[in-house]
Please model this.
Amino acid sequence: MSRRLCFALDLVDDDALIAEYEARHSPGAIWPEVMAHIRAQGFEAMEIWRTADRLVMIAEVADDFPRIVTPPPENAAWEDLMWKFQKPLAHAAAGEKWVPMDRIFSLAEQ
Model:
């Protein structure tokens, strides 16, 4: 059984950087070691949606998420590269990128 989590993050508001960020997230563009680490942590499905410079990540995760796994060296290099494009939300903790979101509405529960 899995559960759904949502996260938010902003991008640097620059059309060229946003286009490059999207290109780096196109099918097959993310480094294989990074993808393997994401899956090893318990992510079963993930989508990132964008409007202007705001990103929302919707993830389906395993019941034992987050699994503690040692990241490959490529993971740090990927994260450093991504900081070129990303900017933390105003209320994010120091060094925090993706901020968890709280579900406040469910159509199924109405």
User: Anything to note?
Assistant: Residues 15-24 form the longest helix (10 residues). The helical segments are 15-24, 32-40, 73-82.
